[in-house]
Write a structure and sequence with these properties.
Length: 420
Amino acid sequence: LRALAGMLEEDIKSAGVALSRTVKEMSAGASYGGADASEWGRALDLLSDRESKVRFEKAGIDADAEAAEERAEDLEERLNRLVDPGTVMGADIEAEVLADSAGDCTLEISYAVPCACWRPAHTAKVDRDSGECTAKVDTDAFVWQFTGEDWRDAQLLFSTQRPSLGTRPPLLAEDVVVARDKAEKVAVEARDSEIRTAGFGAAAGRKRADDLPGIDDSGSVYAVRAAHRTTVSTDGRPHRIALAGFESPAKVEMVCMPEIAEAVVRRVMLTNLGPAPLLAGPIDLVASSGYAGRASTLFVAPGEKFEIGFGPDPELRVKRKVERVQLEKGALSKWIKTAVTITVNLSNIGSSAKSFKLTERIPVSEIEQVRIDFKEGECKPKSSPDANGLLEWEINLPPSGRAAVVCKYVIEKTKDVVGL
């Protein structure tokens, strides 16, 4: 409102400038014998009406701004009282029941209080470090509450609804569209694009969920009831409450993606066989040897496959190296070529043989001015990229063994391409 009032103030100043210039033009016109009182009157009335209208509008906005400032000061004062630990908020409820005849009735009163929240948390346990195994996933709810009253022997219902978000639309910014001449050069950039899929698919014999509940995507609200009544003190500390769990056949395998992390990671692939979706949250990892760390998961619908990373193998070492060489171009050629060599050195410092899957990638061009020439004959061991530019190898390392993976490709671009 203050910004709008400032714009109107500039309009008032502009009207004043126009009025003064009109008066000067009137005096200059009179000196040359061009006096016309009726035209002067209409011009002055038009400018005067414009100025009066803007002043009236500005006065209304100033009044609204003052009221908004008073409201903000009141809210700030209330907020300061609420955050003061010495302030205790209380409320009384008065209920009046009207009935045709006397008798007993049951009255249920629902109310909402601040300073209470919950977050899902999971625990994943596997009984083997490789191959086929059984995984057990337990879901808990961490509850914090500082409402001023203890929840004694309460039946808790955990919901994904977030009423505190409100329904206020976001502010819109100006997006000016202008016309310009076609550039003589083609500006491109190399970017990482995530391969977007709907997950790993449903398990065999199970149907995918048609409607996936969500929070920020206008999906339906999901709610789960705690298995047992519990007591949560108003201490602001986290309380862990068991919700549900399931067991699933799982497959443990070792994977390596050195461009992301120079390590060989233990990956567990399993299926959500529980009756409810798995909400996004942290996962405590428990392997056959004990606690292995913490990971996280996104939303997983019932019957969907998903993966969990159980950390790197400490006995496997990975080193990735990328070399770029600018190739000489011919005098008549319009193409500029850059040779890229990716070398991944692997070693096993353990006393047992190790097997894992290695994934590397090459870029994929989306425009005709840039070409990617993969040197399949110089790829060791042999492999071919898929449509997304991914290459895969099955690596087997004996105890104290070493191996190297090499792939080469050439980036060709025209002379009018900039940004690469």
